[in-house]
C-alpha cells in the first residue's frame, strides 16, 4: 500500500506523458501511448533487407549487406518530432523505446540469432558529455532485449566533426573520413555485427563505421537506424 501511495504521489508531481501527443501514460505504457505507437510511420525495409532504397543509397560506399530502418523520416512528421526530443530535449527513453519496438518487430520476422553483437555509432566524448548520453547507444540497448544480444562500444570517434545536417552528400563523406577507429585491444574477427545509429540520410557515417569493422575482420555488418531520411 505504501509503494502504491508513493507511486501515485510521484506520478502527480512528475507525470509520465506521451512525448508524441502529451497524454498521460497508463502504467502498462512504457514511453509512447498505445495510440501513438499504432500511428508511427513504420517502414518495411526488414522485408527486403538486401535490396531496398537504403542499400541502393550506400552501394559503393561500403560492402553492402542488410540495411534497415524502423521509421520513415519526414520533415515536421512524427519521426522527426521523436528524434528531436530524443537528441535535444533530454529524453533518452525514447531511443530505448524505439529500439524495443523495432527489436520486437525484427524478432517476429525471423531475425533472432542473426548477429553476435550490437555496436552503436559513437559520439565524440565532448559531444556525449554535453548531451549526457549517446542516442545511438540508447537505441541499441532497446534493440538488445528482444533480440537477446549484448551491446558493445567497439568503436571510438577519434576526431570531432561538425554537424552533418546542412552538408551535401560529398561533404558528409569527406567530413567523416578517418574519424572512426576500433577500440584498442578489441578482436572482432569473424563476428556478425549489427551497427546502429539514430538516422540514415546519405549513409556517410554508417558506411565509415562499417568499413572500419570490416577492415578489422568482421564477417559482415548490417546497418539499422531508428529512421531513414532524405538526402
From TrEMBL:
<feature type="domain" description="Phosphoribosyltransferase">
    <location>
        <begin position="137"/>
        <end position="230"/>
    </location>
</feature>
<dbReference type="InterPro" id="IPR000836">
    <property type="entry name" value="PRTase_dom"/>
</dbReference>
<dbReference type="Pfam" id="PF00156">
    <property type="entry name" value="Pribosyltran"/>
</dbReference>
<comment type="similarity">
    <text>Belongs to the ComF/GntX family.</text>
</comment>
<dbReference type="InterPro" id="IPR029057">
    <property type="entry name" value="PRTase-like"/>
</dbReference>
<protein>
    <submittedName>
        <fullName>ComF family protein</fullName>
    </submittedName>
</protein>
<dbReference type="InterPro" id="IPR051910">
    <property type="entry name" value="ComF/GntX_DNA_util-trans"/>
</dbReference>
Amino acid at each position: 500500500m505504501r509503494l502504491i501511495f508513493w507511486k501515485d504521489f510521484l506520478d502527480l508531481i512528475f507525470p509520465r506523458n506521451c512525448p508524441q501527443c502529451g497524454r498521460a501514460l497508463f502504467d502498462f505504457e512504457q514511453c509512447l501511448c498505445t495510440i501513438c505507437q499504432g500511428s508511427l510511420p513504420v517502414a518495411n525495409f526488414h522485408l527486403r533487407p538486401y535490396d531496398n532504397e537504403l542499400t541502393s543509397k550506400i552501394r559503393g560506399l561500403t560492402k553492402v549487406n542488410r540495411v534497415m530502418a524502423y521509421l520513415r523520416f519526414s520533415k515536421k512528421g512524427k519521426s522527426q518530432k521523436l528524434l528531436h526530443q530524443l537528441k535535444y530535449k533530454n529524453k533518452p527513453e525514447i531511443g530505448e523505446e524505439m529500439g524495443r519496438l523495432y527489436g520486437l518487430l525484427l524478432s517476429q520476422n525471423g531475425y533472432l540469432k542473426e548477429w553476435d553483437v550490437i555496436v552503436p555509432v559513437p559520439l565524440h566524448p565532448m559531444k556525449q558529455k554535453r548531451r549526457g548520453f549517446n542516442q545511438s547507444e540508447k537505441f541499441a540497448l532497446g534493440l538488445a532485449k528482444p533480440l537477446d544480444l549484448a551491446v558493445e562500444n567497439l568503436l571510438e570517434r577519434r576526431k570531432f566533426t561538425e554537424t552533418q545536417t546542412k552538408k551535401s552528400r560529398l561533404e558528409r563523406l569527406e567530413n567523416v573520413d578517418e574519424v572512426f577507429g576500433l577500440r584498442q585491444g578489441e578482436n572482432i574477427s569473424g563476428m556478425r555485427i549489427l551497427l546502429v545509429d539514430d538516422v540514415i540520410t546519405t549513409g556517410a557515417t554508417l558506411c565509415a563505421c562499417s568499413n572500419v569493422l570490416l577492415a578489422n575482420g568482421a564477417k559482415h555488418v548490417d546497418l539499422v537506424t531508428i529512421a531513414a531520411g532524405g538526402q
